[in-house]
């Protein structure tokens, strides 16, 4: 009886462990309003320089709660300074733990310039976080885009299929077709939900001033969007040049591949004619493949990761240009109607 009870206990423990391992997919990133204000303040103070910070909170089911954050000091490319930055993070976590504040790392935030955040460095940071944290997100904030009247805040994570492919470091065309992975499948955007306690909501309601009906916000009718559009177009042109360079790499690869195949066919025809002569002379034929011959050495296919990331950036710039130009046309038509009336 004791053995049966021990077996049942072990079986139940394994079932609980297996259920804990299988976590529900991440659906929502719930951020407190104070955390968003901290992120905006930190990113705007150092703009146009890029800054990063730590996100703290709780992983509860399908919701990732972000309850606190703190900024990272601006680092330089120096080992001693990087070590100081790591010590700073550990000291901040210790201090937060002492005052009984959530100190569980759930990701990081970083600023960006016109949405140019799709880089290999971001992917490597994600992979480093994934080694210690089961689920983490990156909050991207764009101060330049927010100046256009939009809260440019988004939560991103890497897709599971892309992380599996990145670990194998095999971004060949055959592998991508096998995994059915395209450039839109690298990042997954998670919806953001802003949460405030009831006391904070009541306090903000008390702080709201009674604005008169006649008060108008004329800044909304500002027609000049040239600086923002120009920067987006400049970045878009740079990305197109980089994509063209990536395409030239593939064209060079395919030219070398076709040249190698032609050399292999010529060598095989020569070897087959030589074998026919040897057979006629009663000699043993030679093998038709020679691994030591350099023309049979496979040419490595260039990685498609850079082209995927560049395509992501091009799509982002096009969406921003489309959104800003649409708002500009709406303002122009509105001003035209006001002048005619």
TrEMBL record:
<comment type="subunit">
    <text>Component of the eukaryotic translation initiation factor 3 (eIF-3) complex.</text>
</comment>
<dbReference type="GO" id="GO:0033290">
    <property type="term" value="C:eukaryotic 48S preinitiation complex"/>
</dbReference>
<feature type="domain" description="MPN">
    <location>
        <begin position="29"/>
        <end position="162"/>
    </location>
</feature>
<dbReference type="InterPro" id="IPR000555">
    <property type="entry name" value="JAMM/MPN+_dom"/>
</dbReference>
<dbReference type="InterPro" id="IPR027524">
    <property type="entry name" value="eIF3h"/>
</dbReference>
<dbReference type="InterPro" id="IPR037518">
    <property type="entry name" value="MPN"/>
</dbReference>
<dbReference type="GO" id="GO:0003743">
    <property type="term" value="F:translation initiation factor activity"/>
</dbReference>
<dbReference type="GO" id="GO:0001732">
    <property type="term" value="P:formation of cytoplasmic translation initiation complex"/>
</dbReference>
<keyword id="KW-0963">Cytoplasm</keyword>
<feature type="region of interest" description="Disordered">
    <location>
        <begin position="268"/>
        <end position="298"/>
    </location>
</feature>
<comment type="similarity">
    <text>Belongs to the eIF-3 subunit H family.</text>
</comment>
<dbReference type="InterPro" id="IPR045810">
    <property type="entry name" value="eIF3h_C"/>
</dbReference>
<protein>
    <recommendedName>
        <fullName>Eukaryotic translation initiation factor 3 subunit H</fullName>
    </recommendedName>
</protein>
<dbReference type="GO" id="GO:0008237">
    <property type="term" value="F:metallopeptidase activity"/>
</dbReference>
<dbReference type="GO" id="GO:0005852">
    <property type="term" value="C:eukaryotic translation initiation factor 3 complex"/>
</dbReference>
<dbReference type="GO" id="GO:0006413">
    <property type="term" value="P:translational initiation"/>
</dbReference>
<comment type="function">
    <text>Component of the eukaryotic translation initiation factor 3 (eIF-3) complex, which is involved in protein synthesis of a specialized repertoire of mRNAs and, together with other initiation factors, stimulates binding of mRNA and methionyl-tRNAi to the 40S ribosome. The eIF-3 complex specifically targets and initiates translation of a subset of mRNAs involved in cell proliferation.</text>
</comment>
<dbReference type="Pfam" id="PF19445">
    <property type="entry name" value="eIF3h_C"/>
</dbReference>
<feature type="compositionally biased region" description="Basic and acidic residues">
    <location>
        <begin position="271"/>
        <end position="282"/>
    </location>
</feature>
<keyword id="KW-0648">Protein biosynthesis</keyword>
<keyword id="KW-0396">Initiation factor</keyword>
<dbReference type="Pfam" id="PF01398">
    <property type="entry name" value="JAB"/>
</dbReference>
<dbReference type="GO" id="GO:0016282">
    <property type="term" value="C:eukaryotic 43S preinitiation complex"/>
</dbReference>
<dbReference type="InterPro" id="IPR050242">
    <property type="entry name" value="JAMM_MPN+_peptidase_M67A"/>
</dbReference>
């Amino acid at each position: 009886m004791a053995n049966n009870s021990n077996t049942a206990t072990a079986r139940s423990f394994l079932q609980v462990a297996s259920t804990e391992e299988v976590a529900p997919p991440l659906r929502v990133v719930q951020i407190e309003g104070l955390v968003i204000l901290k992120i905006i303040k930190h990113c705007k103070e150092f703009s146009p320089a890029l800054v990063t910070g730590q996100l703290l909170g709780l992983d509860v089911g399908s919701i990732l709660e972000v309850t606190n954050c703190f900024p990272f000091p601006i680092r330089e490319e120096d080992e001693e300074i990087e070590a100081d930055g790591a010590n700073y993070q550990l000291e901040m976590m210790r201090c937060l733990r002492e005052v009984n504040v959530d100190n569980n790392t759930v990701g990081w935030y970083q600023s960006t310039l016109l949405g140019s955040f799709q880089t290999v460095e971001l992917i490597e940071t994600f992979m480093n976080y994934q080694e210690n944290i089961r689920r983490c997100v990156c909050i991207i904030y764009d101060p330049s885009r927010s100046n256009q009247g939009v809260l440019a805040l988004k939560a991103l994570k890497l897709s599971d299929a892309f992380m599996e492919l990145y670990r194998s470091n095999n971004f060949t065309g055959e592998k991508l077709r096998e995994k059915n992975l395209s450039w839109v499948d690298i990042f997954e955007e998670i919806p953001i939900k802003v949460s405030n306690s009831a006391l904070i909501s009541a306090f903000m309601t008390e702080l709201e001033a009674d604005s008169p009906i006649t008060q108008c916000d004329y800044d909304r009718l500002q027609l000049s969007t040239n600086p923002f559009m120009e920067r987006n177009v400049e970045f878009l042109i740079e990305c197109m040049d980089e994509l063209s360079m990536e395409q030239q790499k593939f064209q060079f690869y395919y030219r070398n591949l076709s040249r190698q195949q032609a050399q292999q066919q010529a060598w095989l025809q020569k070897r087959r004619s030589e074998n026919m002569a040897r057979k006629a002379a009663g000699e043993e034929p030679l093998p038709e493949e020679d691994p030591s011959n350099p023309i049979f050495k496979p040419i490595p296919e260039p990685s498609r990761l850079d082209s995927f990331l560049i395509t992501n950036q091009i799509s982002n710039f096009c969406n921003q240009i489309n959104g800003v130009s649409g708002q500009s046309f709406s303002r122009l038509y509105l001003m035209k109607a006001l002048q005619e009336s």
